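Attaching the record inline, Q. Sequence:
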Amino acid sequence: MRDILQTADGDIDFTGDDLVLAPTERATGQHKRDILLAAPGDFKEAPTLGVAAVEYIRTTRNSFCETSASRCREDGMDITRVAFNGTGELIIEGDTAMKTIKTVANQTLLDVAVKYYGTAEAAGQLLALNPDLVNDPEALVSLGIDYLADNGCYLDVALAPGQTVTVDTDSDMCRQTVVKELNDKEINTFDGTDD
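Structure, as predicted:
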């Protein structure tokens, strides 16, 4: 994850009289903290994001942990476990720089790269992270490609819908401004013609 460096209190850190990019681990920790403290509705771009930890003071730990895991996943973190250790410290485990998505109908690898990285140039990185991706056989047939004989993955042909794709949200290739703009937009450009 990427974020502007913050102080321990959550304020922007202007120690050096300028904005500073937080190291990955620190940025991820800041995101976790912000999600735990924020209430749903606090983030305009993601109105359901937020746990409102204070509201869980008189509830069960399980309910708090389940909500926390769900909200972190909503923010794109690949959370495997949220629990309290023996001393009562909250533990959030998982690969928080990676996000998994499901492909939709008529979505190409280039579409996925643009939506989740903000640039088509990330298609190669997506293929490296997801070497088993396959194109939709019907899309290949519509272009006259024999999907049984051709094992390649075409960048501009629809992927088989419903595939799980791993996206590195902390990649240097990510153009966060573009990704935010496209957040709620469906990008699926394959139309089945060979133009």
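The helical segments are 24-37, 61-74, 109-117, 123-129, 137-142, 176-182. The two ends are 37 Å apart (CA to CA).

More tomorrow.
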